[in-house]
Amino acid sequence: MPTPDSPEPPMARRGFSTFQPGETGPLGTVELTRDEVVAFASAWDPQPFHLDEAAGLASPLKGHAASGWHTASLLMRLLADTLLAGARSMGSGHVRDLRWVKPVLVGDRLAARYVVREVRPSSRGDRGYVETDFVMENQNGVTVLTMSATLIIGS
Amino acid sequence: MPTPDSPEPPMARRGFSTFQPGETGPLGTVELTRDEVVAFASAWDPQPFHLDEAAGLASPLKGHAASGWHTASLLMRLLADTLLAGARSMGSGHVRDLRWVKPVLVGDRLAARYVVREVRPSSRGDRGYVETDFVMENQNGVTVLTMSATLIIGS
Predict the structure, then answer these.
(1) Is B125's Cβ below 8 Å from some Cβ in A?
(2) Which of A19, A153, B42, B59 could form an S-S bond across to B49 if both were Cys, CB 3.0 to 4.6 Å?
(3) Which helix (H) or strand (E) holds B70?
């Protein structure tokens, strides 16, 4: 279980037309413990460099590195607790260019933020698509993850 | 914890030059239980339609749907247990076009497979990049997830 430190979501749930290109904001921060890194990897990505410090140090990752799917799931949790908790979220159907730019190591503290790139209504009339870019940085200001997703938000 | 039913990985670990464009194979199958769907969503994606059957039925997902990150993590687990367990895996830095084509619902049984699209050596000399397409289908033969990833495989 992550222990995110997320900003409070707004009380009212936003519809898609309240989103504007260029809107940006923080999604919160989270620190990765060794136990969480091992637990996620054991369940979902049991490669040696995610399970064991010595194997991680001997690998190109140069340390005990979290699974990239762990980092992405942490971003999802922060997003769900903030932007989506305050919006009429209907999920997402598409992530483009999920990049694990640098290894995320045990003890790293990650901060996530978002930027809205494009907003367009769906032909269904009851929802819209919010194309959003995401960035996660570590405690040294180094970008570790980037991705773009199509958020589906109700009217 | 998933309960994958993965083919046995080969004994020897393959280097990247053993991969050829067009190579394809199964990665195994896995069934999603309600408890697993709720546990993953509670930890990583606590949106109502992932947590609760009634909320899922009332949503555009039309059922108690797994988080898309849960489905992707299941694919990662199957991949780690099979193709990567039998290769000199160094991880991955890039996923393109992760598409949740159709909802994955509690009780679905998913089968995953891969197709190698392109293989190229790294300029570092000790590894190569295996561009691989992945597909997950449900028990009705409906594609529920597609993605392309760059696998980094040692020489």
Answers:
(1) no
(2) B59
(3) helix B68-81
Q: Tokens for A4, please give them.
A: 């995110």
How close is the nearest chain A Cα to the Cα of B146, in Å? Answer: 10
B142's tokens: 């409906």
- Give the β-pairing of B24-31 and B127-137: unpaired
Q: pLDDT, tens digit, for every residue of B81-92? A: 999 999 999 999
Query: Does residue A44 sit in helix, strand or coil?
Result: helix
Exposed e or buried b for every residue in A54-66, given b needs 16+ CB within 10 A? eebeebebebbbb
Tokens coding A136: 């996660």
> Is the pLDDT at B10 greater than 60, yes or no?
no
B121 in contact with A, Cβ within 8 Å:
no
Tell me the one-letter amino acid at B50.
H
Which ipTM was obtained for this model?
0.93
- Res A5: pLDDT: 75
Average pLDDT on A74-93 reads 96
- Cα dihedral angle (A82, A86, A89, A93), rounded to 10 degrees? -30
Using a CB-CB distance cutoff of 8 angstroms, which residues of chain B are in contact with residue A152?
60
| Cα–Cα dist A68/A100, whole Å | 6
Q: Which residues pair with B94 in a beta bridge?
A: A99, B150
Contact of B117 with B21, CB cutoff 8 Å: yes
Check B80 against A46: CB less than 8 A apart.
yes
Contact between B49 and A73 using a beta-carbon 8 Å cutoff: no
Q: Is A82 on the interface with B (CB under 8 A)?
A: no
The reported pTM is 0.94
Q: Where does the pLDDT of residue A12 fall: very low under 50, low under 70, confident under 90, or very high at 90 and above?
A: confident
Q: For residues B59 and A16, what is the distance between their CA atoms, to the nearest angstrom?
A: 16
Burial of B23 (0-12, 13-18, 19+ CB in 10 A): middle
